[in-house]
Amino acid sequence: MASPGSRPAFSYTVLYVEDVKRSLDFYSKAFGFKIRRLDDSHKWGELDSGPTTIAFTPIEQRETAITGGVHIPTKGEHRPNIELSFSFDDFDAAFKHAIECGAEEVAKPEGKVWGQKAGYVRDLDGVVIRLGSHVHEPHQ
């Protein structure tokens, strides 16, 4: 249990992927993230993604016996219960660039009632990624 007055810091989102290096290269090229680290075994990689880290490890990687296997979503299935979300200054250019780099379009961009434009893609391993424009607070 955390001590009173302390709070946790969200440190990693780990994606289980077919090929760690391929995924790092894809995220770097498609979304502009800088690769922070790829270990010599290619069993762990990290992107420099701000205050938290997006990390990658192979599908077959298991650190403990209780983690079990990993299910990779396929095109016809419902989306998984998690998605990544990235915001861009030039959303239209970012969405187009992601598709050109191999992301699969899931939902075309559309305007949202809260003033954001957003669209969805899947990465090379089926992870759903929401791309959106920045949401600006209304002036008071």
UniProtKB/TrEMBL annotation:
Identify the PROSITE patterns for this entry.
VOC
Cite the VOC domain residue spans from the record. Answer: 9-134
Q: Which Pfam families match?
A: Glyoxalase (PF00903)
Q: Output the superkingdom of the source species.
A: Eukaryota
Give the residues annotated as coiled coil.
none
Q: Which InterPro entries match?
A: Glyas_Bleomycin-R_OHBP_Dase, Glyas_Fos-R_dOase_dom, GlyoxalaseI/FosfomycinResist, VOC_core
Q: What CDD domains does the record point to?
A: VOC_like (cd07264)
Tell me what this protein is called.
VOC domain-containing protein
Q: Which organism is it from?
A: Adiantum capillus-veneris
The organism that produces this protein has a lineage beginning with:
Eukaryota, Viridiplantae, Streptophyta, Embryophyta, Tracheophyta
